[in-house]
Amino acid sequence: MANIVTSVCCVVLAAVVVVFAQRRSQQGARIQYERMGSDVTMQCGSLDSEASATWKVNGTDVKARQAEDGPRLILMEVNLNSNGLYSCFENPNGERRDQIVLRVGTPPKEPTVTCRSNTYPKGFYCSWHLQDPTYIPTDFEVHVKHNQKSLEVQKDAVHKNRCHVKFPELFSTFKYRVNVTAVNALGRASNAITFDDFFIVKPDPPEKVVATPIPNNVRRLEVTWNSPSTWPDVENFPLKYFLRYRPLIRDQWQHVELSDSTSHTITDAYAGKEYIIQVAAKDTEIGTWSEWSVAVHATPWMEEPKQVISTTEAEVIVETTPSPAPPSAKPRLGISVGGCSALLWSTPLLLASILLSLM
């Protein structure tokens, strides 16, 4: 066992040493970004065109399609497999003269941008993403304007491609304009959206949805929920709710729209059937419906069956079953004479003998 542990430790240590050595060797290397599918030329330091050099990638010979032109290495139609640390050595003494980290990627396309206010009337957030990967580091520049004024943009602490903006005023007649630009070493692309504040209002789903059976009501379920905790001012900006429910045995939903209540009693449930229930929320005046809440399951109250035993059944249960008569037994007649019992047999001869003895 000790030998196995020692071997594993040695393998892990060796891997760590290799990674550390690679990172350290790349520290002095320059990064060269190139477009996927293009032919790439790498120059070995400051060597003049008359010098010759030998190239290696990640410490091994370069196997990709290539051409050497003095101190230059030309790679044909590079792809992601072309990435790596390229080192060049001046001939004939083999002195290393340069190191290049090749990163192959693509320029960004227009990012997709969406904005939403789930904390109305405090502010809104915008998020963005690229439809296609670039394979190289890409940054985003975000600019928000309202009534020709630039607004402060705060980066989200958790989501990389998200920012937060405060509403400068409520019920504004001026539109908001959000412009997001994707930038990397191979190019840049922008996309802008324009909207009114009421257009992007969309609460988060209701929370803590609970469905409870009502005693002695086999067709009712009491459903309660809380307003989304992210909605800052329910009193001044009330929400209305949309409840949907269905038994698991069916695919069709039933819907109920409620004003500002956070509870509802389902009165038409199928007795004994399990139900799935969800709730959505929306500002009473503006915006759109939230996503559905987490689904909850519940079954209406079911009465426990009572055990009823009839008198006849009880008698049958307590009755002692008589033992069957022996198969050889014959009918007998018992007569009591002077306190003693005489047995009369049915045969004529025995009966005559008994009568004579009594005379």
UniProtKB/TrEMBL annotation:
Gene3D superfamilies: Immunoglobulins. Coiled coil: none annotated. It is a lipid-anchor; GPI-anchor. Residues 107-204, 205-305 form the Fibronectin type-III domain. InterPro entries: FN3_dom, FN3_IL27B_N, FN3_sf, Hematopoietin_rcpt_L_F3_CS, Ig-like_dom, Ig-like_dom_sf, Ig-like_fold, Ig_sub2. Residues 1-21 form the signal peptide. Keywords: Cell membrane, Disulfide bond, Glycoprotein, GPI-anchor, Immunoglobulin domain, Lipoprotein, Membrane, Receptor, Repeat, Signal, Transmembrane, Transmembrane helix. One of its GO terms (cellular component) is receptor complex. Residues 37-88 form the Ig-like domain. The keyword S-adenosyl-L-methionine does not apply. Belongs to the type I cytokine receptor family. Type 3 subfamily. This is Ciliary neurotrophic factor receptor subunit alpha. It comes from Aldrovandia affinis.
